[in-house]
Amino acid sequence: MDIKSNSLYSQMQNMSLQAMGNKPPVIDADVINGIASNSVGKVNQSTSNFGDMLTSALKGVNDLQTESGEKKRAFEMGDSNVTLAEVMIASSKSGVALDATVQIRNKFVEAYKEIMSMPV
């Protein structure tokens, strides 16, 4: 897969802005009309950051894996409240979530290697 460095860098900047909840500064209408204004643009003061988002996503994947394991165990033990369909759906959900997590990790590693190989 050929990733252009400028494209990758701009995508990472956009992802960083989205993760931090920040948006590019908005130009005030008064500034456009030539009237000086003290407002520079509002920045979202959200306390969430990329690390927190990543941690919560990984916890969600872990929860799906745990739920799948519990349903498998309950079905194997003969619990009549758990059907085979529920077990298969939970297993599929956890499998898809784990595959997506691995792919995201691989993309991060690729991006990191690409950035580290860029000349300064």
Q: Could you explain the architecture of this structure?
A:
InterPro entries: FliE. It holds the Pfam family FliE. It comes from Colwellia psychrerythraea. It is built from four helices and no strands. It is an all-alpha fold. The protein has one domain (5-33, 46-116). It is elongated and about 60 Å long. Residues 25-33 and 36-40 have low confidence and may be disordered.
Topology, pairings included?
Elements: H1 5-20, H2 29-32, H3 50-76, H4 84-116
Helix pairs in contact: 3-4
Pfam families: FliE (PF02049)
Subcellular location: Bacterial flagellum basal body
Protein name: Flagellar hook-basal body complex protein FliE
- Strand content is under 5%
Range of helix content: 55-70%
Spatial gap, N to C terminus: 23 Å
Q: Could you say which structural class the secondary elements and strand pairing correspond to? A: mainly alpha
Radius of gyration, CA atoms, in whole angstroms: 23 Å
Average pLDDT works out at: 78
What is the count of helical runs? 4
Number of strands: 0
Largest sheet: none
User: How would you sum up the global shape?
Assistant: elongated
Short key terms for the protein model shown above:
single chain; 120 residues
